[in-house]
Amino acid sequence: MSKPPPPKKRRTITILHPDLGIGGAERLILDVALSLQARGHRVKIYTSHRDLNHCFEEARDGTLDVTVRGNTVFPDQIAGRFRVLFAVLRQVHLVVGLLMTRREQEQTDNQAKSEGEGEEEDLYIVDQVPACVPILKTFAPLLSSSSQSLQGNTKSKLKRKQRILFYCHFPDQLLARRDEGGVIRRLAKACYRYPFDWFEGWAISAADKVVANSNFTCGIVKQVFGEGLGDVKVVYPCVDTGNKKEGDRVEGGALWGGKKILLSINRFERKKDVGLAIRAYHGLGEERRKGTRLVIA
Hints:
Blueprint: E1 12-17, H1 24-38, E2 42-47, E3 65-68, H2 83-112, E4 117-127, H3 133-150, E5 157-168, H4 183-204, E6 209-212, H5 215-225, E7 233-234, E8 260-264, H6 274-283, E9 292-296
Parallel strand pairs: 1-2, 1-4, 2-3, 4-5, 5-6, 6-7, 8-9
Helix pairs in contact: 2-3
C-alpha cells in the first residue's frame, strides 16, 4: 500500500480515552492514532487506565506514545457504584497532568523555534467522556499565551491554535440503568444522575466539533442534547485494509453455502444485550429460520 502524502500542516494531536482495553472504541482510537501518525502528525494518547495484559498490541509495544495518568488518586468505582462520578474525577486528574506536561513542552518548543514565525495547530480528540472539554477549552490556549510571553525578548512570532473534537459513541445518560430497585432507590439514583446528565450536555457543547459513530447515534445525540451542538457529523470506525491476506479469500461457491447470515458483533457484556439477538432470531419461527444462520462474534 502506498505511503500517504505528507500533511500540508504538521499538527500536534492529543487523544484522550478513559480506558485502553480491548473493545471497539479502543480499536477506533488506536486506528485513528496510527493513521494520523502515518501522515506525519505528532500523536500522543492519554488514558486513565491501560492493562498491559489486556490491551491491543499497538497500545503497549511502543508503536504509539501512550501516557497513563489519572488513576493514582481516584478508583474507577466503589463496590460497583459511582462509576460516572469517578470517570469524571479521573479524567479531570488526567487532563491536569496533561496540561502541566504541555506547559513544559510549549516552553521547550518556543525556545527551539525562537527564530521562526507562523502558526501551528493543536488538535485534541476527546473520546467517550466529555468532562475535560471545558477545561481544555479554557486553559489550553492560556498555555500558549504564557509560554509566548516568557519568550518576549526573542524574535519568535510563533502562534498556536487549539481545536477540540469530541467523539460520541452514545449519550452516557441513556446507558444508566434507572429502573432497578424500589421507588426510593430509583428516586435517589435519579437525583444522583441529574447533575451528571446536565453536565454531560454542557461539557460536550464546549467542543469545537462533535461527531458520532453512526447515523443512529447522531440522531440520538440530537434528540438528547438538542441543536446546540451544531451540525453533528458521522465518522465511522475505520477498517485497516492494508493487512488483508490473499489466503483468506474464499474460492469457489458462496460463503456459508449461500445461507442468509444475521451477524451480531459485540463484546459479551450485559449492556450489549446479546440475548436480544437470540430472542429475536427465535421469534422468527422455525419456518422463517430455514436457510439462515445467526452468528454472534
